[in-house]
Design a protein that fits this description.
8 helices; Rossmann fold; single chain; alpha/beta; about 260 residues; binds nicotinamide-adenine-dinucleotide
């Protein structure tokens, strides 16, 4: 049922986005991957996904802070793949600092990448999905779409925002065979989390190991990091027919964090 469909996954050159892209490719879904990084390394990722799974894989380097580049990427997906059936808004960044020290440029970048980019991809994707009578929009939010942590004002605001956006668009397309949902992972040990550990250690006056145990895993009752595979499997489930009545909501994969 999913074989031959086309998916676009933002921020899929590493971490959760790459895991979701691979999971979809494994179903025979063609891909547009996107994200930052070394051009040669990204070409290796693109080519290996295409050859391993026998699907078409395009790479687009659109910077998610730039609406005109996002528009070009969406147009490329239309012209070169024929359309986007599955849109995964995954690109995201983090910055950890007390609000009075939070750089305004970091606030703007986080809101642009984690929230506004999903508006720009979605507004360009829904007409095609509605015309087909089938579509899936999956927004990779976070446990921080539901609960807050100190020193993450922009991230928490962006993730609460994407959940509101998810619900709104779900209502707009509900009769058209298009579902819109958010996945809310707890901590997954990707580059995004690895990068924030030193800053968190500095702000809280802790060691790296203390941050892992007393800040990150303290939030998760299971005391285990969530895995990329678990998040990617959830995304694939949301694409299935079995999930056709799941829309306008979120699925938490957070080891019990948001049950607190
Ligand atoms: P990651 O750093 O491994 O991946 C982020 C991806 O976004 C990369 O491909 C990167 O190149 C891309 N990206 C960053 N800035 C970009 C820009 N300006 N334009 C285009 N692409 C850009 O991090 P990750 O942990 O895999 O994060 C993916 C998503 O999952 C994010 O939205 C993040 O908020 C969310 N998330 C992560 C965790 C976690 O613990 N890792 C938990 C909850 C939610």
């Amino acid at each position: 049922m999913l074989k031959g469909k086309n998916a676009l996954v933002t921020g899929s050159t590493s971490g959760i986005g790459l895991g979701i892209a691979e999971k979809l490719a494994n179903e025979g879904i063609n891909l547009v991957i996107n994200g930052l990084g070394d051009a040669k390394e990204i070409e290796v990722i693109r080519a290996s996904l295409a050859s391993k799974y026998g699907v078409t894989v395009l790479y687009d380097p659109a910077d998610m802070t730039q609406p005109d580049q996002i528009e070009c990427m969406m147009k490329k997906a239309m012209t070169q793949l024929g359309g986007v059936d599955i849109l995964v808004n995954n690109a995201g960044i983090q910055h950890v600092a007390p609000v009075e020290e939070f750089p305004a440029s970091k606030w703007d970048a986080i809101i642009a990448i984690n929230l506004s980019s999903a508006f720009h991809t979605t507004r360009m994707a829904v007409s095609y999905m509605k015309s087909k009578g089938w579509g899936r929009i999956i927004n990779v939010a976070s446990a921080h779409a539901l609960v807050a942590s100190p020193f993450k004002s922009a991230y928490v605001a962006s993730k609460h925002g994407i959940l509101g956006f998810t619900k709104t668009i779900a209502l707009e397309v509900a009769t058209k065979g298009v579902t819109v949902n958010a996945i809310c992972p707890g901590y997954v040990l990707t580059a995004l989390v690895e990068r924030q550990i030193p800053d968190t250690a500095k702000v809280r006056g802790m060691t790296i190991e203390q941050v892992k145990q007393e800040v990150l895993l303290a939030a998760q009752p299971t005391k285990q990091f969530v895995t990329v595979e678990q998040v990617a499997s959830c995304a694939l489930f949301l694409c299935s027919d079995a999930a056709a009545s799941i829309t306008g909501t979120h699925i938490s994969i957070d080891g019990g964090w948001s049950a607190h």
